[in-house]
Automatic annotation (TrEMBL):
Function: Catalyzes the third of the four reactions of the long-chain fatty acids elongation cycle. This endoplasmic reticulum-bound enzymatic process, allows the addition of two carbons to the chain of long- and very long-chain fatty acids/VLCFAs per cycle. This enzyme catalyzes the dehydration of the 3-hydroxyacyl-CoA intermediate into trans-2,3-enoyl-CoA, within each cycle of fatty acid elongation. Thereby, it participates to the production of VLCFAs of different chain lengths that are involved in multiple biological processes as precursors of membrane lipids and lipid mediators.
Record localization: Endoplasmic reticulum membrane; Membrane
Keyword Flavoprotein recorded: no
Major subcellular location class: endoplasmic reticulum
Name of this chain's protein: Very-long-chain (3R)-3-hydroxyacyl-CoA dehydratase
Biological process (GO), any one: very long-chain fatty acid biosynthetic process
Keywords: Endoplasmic reticulum, Fatty acid biosynthesis, Fatty acid metabolism, Lipid biosynthesis, Lipid metabolism, Lyase, Membrane, Transmembrane, Transmembrane helix
Bilayer-crossing regions: 37-61, 123-152, 172-196
Organism per entry: Anas platyrhynchos (Mallard)
GO molecular function: very-long-chain (3R)-3-hydroxyacyl-CoA dehydratase activity
Membrane-topology annotation of the record: Multi-pass membrane protein
Alphabetical list of InterPro entries matching this protein: Tyr_Pase-like_PTPLA
Gene Ontology cellular-component terms listed: endoplasmic reticulum membrane
Family indicated by similarity: Belongs to the very long-chain fatty acids dehydratase HACD family.
Length: 197
């Protein structure tokens, strides 16, 4: 329980830093701050998301009693969108949708990790419990739409630059056109939204 508390505390600190940084930058620079969100907080965001992979391990070894499949889907979706789509295309990193997506993810995570920390110490603060579950119901579908829009915005860049597309010469004559993979992933993303709840 102490380990999970420390894990939740680390995630809370990371996501709080990101969330606070985003708000302060927006209040200081207005709309101009939206375009360089990824450049100012991207490293910490990537670290927090990589660290979240441990949550799958926590469930598998039995120290966390959360349901595996919804958690696995949520973490996998974020890793794919953050690392495969946003991180790999510099042109996408400056889009407003990245700021919206990071705002939604971090708002959800600040509340979730606060709730988890308190729950691990046996404290159940009713307004926080309500906020945790209400925000999830409200913001998770919005975050799925934001992820889908980020993928949609990235498609022209994947088409132009051929990132992750593979074309093998004969005798294999095998090719993978990555924009098609992303379009199929959009379907999986929306199906996954219903499986998480």
């Amino acid at each position: 329980n102490t380990y999970l508390f420390v894990y939740d505390l680390m995630q809370f600190c990371g996501h709080s830093w990101i969330f606070t940084n985003m708000i302060i930058r927006f209040m200081s620079f207005g709309k101009d701050s939206l375009a360089d969100t990824f450049y100012s907080i991207g490293l910490v965001m990537r670290l927090c998301q990589l660290l979240s992979v441990l949550e799958i391990l926590h469930i598998l070894i039995g120290i966390d009693k959360s349901r595996f499949f919804p958690r696995f889907l949520q973490i996998t979706e974020r890793i794919i969108v953050l690392f495969v789509v946003i991180n790999s295309q510099e042109e996408v990193q400056g889009k407003y949708i990245v700021c919206v997506l990071f705002f939604l993810w971090n708002l959800l995570d600040v509340v979730r990790y606060t709730y988890n920390m308190l729950a691990r110490t046996g404290i159940y603060y009713l307004p926080l419990t309500w906020l945790n579950f209400s925000l999830c119901i409200l913001l998770y579908p919005l975050s799925v739409l934001a992820k889908a829009f980020a993928i949609y915005v990235s498609l022209p860049y994947f088409e132009t630059f051929g990132t992750y597309s593979i074309k093998l010469p004969l005798p294999f004559a095998f090719s993978i056109y990555f924009p098609y993979v992303l379009k199929m992933y959009l379907l999986v993303l929306f199906i996954g939204k219903y499986l998480i709840f």
